[in-house]
Amino acid sequence: MCRSLIPPRTLKGFRDFLPETMIPREQLIDTARQVYRSYGYLPIATPALEHEEILLGKGGVETDKQLYRFADHGGRSVGLRFDLTVPLARFTAQHLARLGLPFKAYHIAPVWRGENTQRGRYREFMQCDFDTIGTRSPVADIETALVIHDLLHAIGFDRFTIHVNNRMLLTGLLERLGLAERAVAILRALDKLAKIGRDRVADEMIETAGLARHDTEKVLQLVETTGTNQQILTEVGRLVRGSAGGEAGVERLAELLASLQATGVPEGRIRLDVAIARGLDYYTGVVFETTLDQLPAIGSVCSGGRYDDLAGLYTHEQLPGVGASLGLDRLLTAMQELGMIDQVHPLAPVLIAYFDPHRLQDYLQIASSLRAAGIAVEVYPDPKRLGHQLKYANRRGFRVALIAGQDELAASTCQVKNLQTGTSNSVSLADGTEQLVTEIHRILDGP
Amino acid sequence: MCRSLIPPRTLKGFRDFLPETMIPREQLIDTARQVYRSYGYLPIATPALEHEEILLGKGGVETDKQLYRFADHGGRSVGLRFDLTVPLARFTAQHLARLGLPFKAYHIAPVWRGENTQRGRYREFMQCDFDTIGTRSPVADIETALVIHDLLHAIGFDRFTIHVNNRMLLTGLLERLGLAERAVAILRALDKLAKIGRDRVADEMIETAGLARHDTEKVLQLVETTGTNQQILTEVGRLVRGSAGGEAGVERLAELLASLQATGVPEGRIRLDVAIARGLDYYTGVVFETTLDQLPAIGSVCSGGRYDDLAGLYTHEQLPGVGASLGLDRLLTAMQELGMIDQVHPLAPVLIAYFDPHRLQDYLQIASSLRAAGIAVEVYPDPKRLGHQLKYANRRGFRVALIAGQDELAASTCQVKNLQTGTSNSVSLADGTEQLVTEIHRILDGP
Question: Across the interface, do B48 and A354 touch by the CB < 8 Å criterion?
Fold first, then answer.
């Protein structure tokens, strides 16, 4: 009989994760959680599906188009979340009384976008957000930068740059020039600076925001300020002088830089960069982007900033806050490219060969006592010939194989094979597994 | 101006998780991962969305009805996974060559079902599956039981029962009675035994499976066998004698019980229970259900069993295996009811009061060195009055508050307040934060 099979395949833009990619992914998420927790951020979770009215229109025209929308069993219009910011806003508005303020949350979960996969984008990817809600304090800005720094460092990156700006600089300048109400169109143009160059950005500001040519010059002068962080602070301070918002922005940046230095963040890792704008009018204060010095082309791996009003669509309460989002997929790609992901070893380093079927309970007992001693161990399930089992052990990357046939067990011993060097030692089991544990640790901790 | 707001609400049957429920949930998942890993299971992940043809018809009529289905942006028929078994089957068939056999996987992810919420069911819930694929070995059966046992024990349960059966007993008996081809209808009837009683089950077997009354008696006699595990083994052995499958089933159960005993699983935690059938014809060998002795009504918190053919719909390769699934939501409910979830403390136990705005960098430095010493710490973001900050600390469940104004810092000291007792100690910061770390540990580790 030849049944017709359903072809086993994933949807375009969706991925399976095999253990070799899933293990570093889980490690990365663990590290993020650990760093978030060390700063007092607490975990939250929201549903994958939301009422369509919660999601629609919250991320712009493009995002609306990419939204996975459908009618559920009750005929309700629903959608899969496309980011974690909109669900966080809905969540905070809904549970405000129980949460209390300030509220520090982290949120790690997949999001879905019907992206054009030709651009190499995935339609399902993981976001790792953290936010401090309900305070305008510079402390929360500083801690956000510290978390980004600690996170990259804890993951194992050494050479990275956190680019910092404050939206108040540009807002202040525009106020002084009487152009405050054109900020959105100007930001939209400035966002393209790296891509299309200063001349075309100036043209766009004239066309879409109706700026005079000499005002485009002032705006470009601000965002093109270069030099050391201190030089930029001085120069930008001069450019926004007389604007209360602009001066406050300079002051907050100065405090941020001083505080990061005081807590031991190497100076080279923080760069004032007045050109980074981070999209549209959501952000109102400090903004962050993080690049890897060896792979700048990969783009920002951790971005965020301060906002004035997280949940204005869902509550009359104005909720200021600051947060950022770790780009998990980009980071994993980068770690692969930089050779930062070790050759994958199985999570259990020890394989017990299933040698003699009459001795199964001995193997199970040894496995149990090793687990009790904190050593993860797998018992090969079938009494196949030893060569076959050792081939499996090598292919899977086990570090140690335990081999004990009738002779060994009758003599209360066990062969401990170092699978990297190929050498074996005989270890006594006469007094329990203590010696065995020592020998395994010697191999695992060895060079 | 009074904007009209979008009401912040979740969909019926969907839940937000606030930190007080999310923290134990994360802990539970961590524990599951740790136990799975200690046995050599490796993590995998599959997409939330699958081609509809992968999902449809794989879980029965009811499941098809509950499937969240829609057309995606490319007009493809897609659906949200309703369990992790079907995606695992598709995954294994698709990646078989790369995975190799035997393959041990764990898979922790949400699934979606458009359930009737009036039955108290959720439409989004987490599953935690683990499976050993590609072997018929009893070792894999035994390890599955050991994982269930270690898992419940590691979570903190003391009084629980793993109910064990083997489908081969009934299959063997039916073979002997010449009723093998009616097994599905008979199993379907037997599954209702606890609910509708033996008489109505007998009637159903006569009606739907066409059994003779005296055969229903034999079937019921088998599944109603009671006594100690040893008594049941003997009695069941007598009932299936002469059927090769039935006798093999008895032998495997005997080996399972002996092996669990040999590895130190307390005898009272394992109960032979010939009545458990676990649904339809998917399982072919050992089956497991796990109940909490103090809350039997909550149902099984970890169930699974052995199957002959995981992925027959997607590949001609026959893949036998064994696995089980942890009922995360039920377990959390049980832990809450049994008072096993501690009063929620924030993940950062130490709050640094923001006392003197001119001393912010001192507070940030203290926070950094405490984090470097492994102590999670939050800096209150605003220099509000101390009473307000201490109220926040108490409401959030912080254990320790650090208070340092200008006088303390000028004298290189810091007040360490134990928030449970209300007492304070002054600690010197003259030689760094070493003394501070000691004092904090004294409070955190204290009674």
Answer: no
Q: Please state, in angstroms and rounded to a whole number, the distance separating the CA atoms of residues A69 and A78.
A: 6
Total residue length of chain A: 447
> Strand A350-352 relative to strand A400-403: parallel, antiparallel, unpaired?
parallel
CATH of residue B37: 3.30.930.10
Which chain B residues contact residue A95 at CB under 8 A?
Answer: 16, 18
Q: How many CA atoms lie within 13 A of B307 on its CB side?
A: 20
Mark whether A98 and A45 lie in a shared domain. Answer: yes
Q: Look at residues B281, B278, B274, B277 and name the one whose alpha carbon lies nearest to residue B309.
A: B281
In the block, which residue shows the tokens 């009671």?
B226
Q: Could you tell me if residue B84 is inside a domain? A: yes
Do A49 and A86 have their domain in common? yes
pLDDT recorded at residue A402: 97
Q: How many domains does chain B have?
A: 3
Q: Does residue B39 sit in the same domain as residue B106?
A: yes
The token pair that represents B162 in the structure block: 């793993």
| Closest chain B CA to residue A66 | B73
CB atoms within 10 A of CB A394: 13
Reported as a pLDDT band with limits 50, 70 and 90, residue A58 is confident
Contact between chains at B43 and A146 (C-beta distance less than 8 A): no
Q: Show residues of chain A in contact with B49, CB under 8 Å.
A: 11, 14, 68, 112, 123-124
pLDDT of residue B191: 85
Q: Distance, in angstroms, between B200 CA and closest chain A CA?
A: 34
Cross-chain residue pair A49–B105, CB shorter than 8 Å: no
Q: For residue B99, give its domain range.
A: 10-159+293-344
A80 contacts on B by Cβ (under 8 Å): 48
A31 and A121 co-located in one domain = yes
Give this prediction's pTM: 0.94
Same domain, B23 and B150: yes
Does the residue B286 lie in any domain?
no
Number of A–B residue contacts, CB under 8 Å? 297
Nearest to A360 among B139, B360, B378 (CB): B139
Give the best residue of B2, B3, B4, B9 to mutate against chain A (max A CB count within 10 A). Answer: B9
Q: Contacts of residue B17 in chain A, CB cutoff 8 Å?
A: 43-46
Q: What is the model's pLDDT at position B1? A: 46
A72 occurs within a structural domain: yes
For the residues of A201-229, what is the DSSP string, one character each?
HHHHHHHHH---HHHHHHHHHHHT--SSH
Look at B33 and B62; give whichever has higher pLDDT.
B33
Say what the pLDDT of residue B280 is. 60
How far apart are the CA of A329 and the nearest CA of chain B, in angstroms?
14
- A150: nearest Cα among A138, A160, A136: A160
What is the predicted pLDDT for the residue at A1? Answer: 46
Instruction: For residue A274, tell me if it sits in a domain.
Output: no
Q: Within this chain, do residues B332 and B409 fall inside the same structural domain, yes or no?
A: no
Q: What angle do CA B342, B343, B347 make, to 5 degrees?
A: 90
- Regarding whether A226 and A186 lie in a shared domain, the answer is yes
Q: d(Cα B255, Cα B250) in Å, to the nearest integer?
A: 9
Tell me which chain A residues have a C-beta less than 8 angstroms from the C-beta of B312.
Answer: 3
C-beta of residue B117 within 8 angstroms of C-beta of residue B85: no
Query: Which chain B residues contact residue A259 at CB under 8 A?
Result: 360-361, 364
